[in-house]
Design a protein that fits this description.
The protein has three helices and five strands, in the order H-H-E-E-E-E-E-H. The protein is an alpha+beta fold. It has two domains: 40 residues; 49 residues, HU Protein, Chain A, CATH 4.10.520. The strands form two sheets. It has a three-stranded antiparallel beta sheet with strand order 1-2-5. Strands 3-4 form a two-stranded antiparallel sheet. The relative contact order is 0.11.
Length: 100
C-alpha cells in the first residue's frame, strides 16, 4: 500500500470530513515525527502498533564489492528496527476460519 492509498482509506473512513490535502499533511507530520525521534536516538512507540528504534550497523573491515570482488571497508551506518506489538501480531496472525 502506498501513501496515496492510505490517504484515500483515511478519507473514506472519516466520511470525507477532512480534505485529502489535510490528511496528507497529518500523515507527513506523523512520519516526520517518527523520523526525528529515531534521528535523536530515541525509540518511538505507537501503542498497539509497534516500536521504531534506532539501530547501528557496525563497520565491516572485510566487505567485498560484489561487482569487482575488491575488498572494501564500510563505515558504521544507522538504520531503523521495527518491533511489532503483541496486539498487532495477534491481529495479523488471526485466522478467521480456524477450527479448534
Amino acid at each position: 500500500m502506498v501513501r496515496s492509498e492510505i490517504i484515500s482509506k483515511l478519507s473514506d473512513k472519516i466520511h470525507r470530513k477532512l480534505k485529502k490535502s489535510e490528511l496528507e499533511k497529518i500523515l507527513n507530520i506523523v512520519v516526520n515525527t517518527i523520523i526525528d525521534g529515531v534521528k535523536e536516538n530515541k525509540s518511538v512507540e505507537l501503542r498497539n502498533f509497534g516500536r521504531f528504534s534506532p539501530k547501528k550497523i557496525k563497520q565491516k573491515l572485510n566487505a567485498r564489492n560484489p561487482k569487482t570482488g575488491e575488498k572494501i571497508q564500510t563505515s558504521e551506518k544507522r538504520s531503523i528496527a521495527f518491533k511489532m506489538s503483541k496486539e498487532l501480531r495477534r491481529k495479523i496472525n488471526k485466522s478467521e476460519g480456524k477450527v479448534n
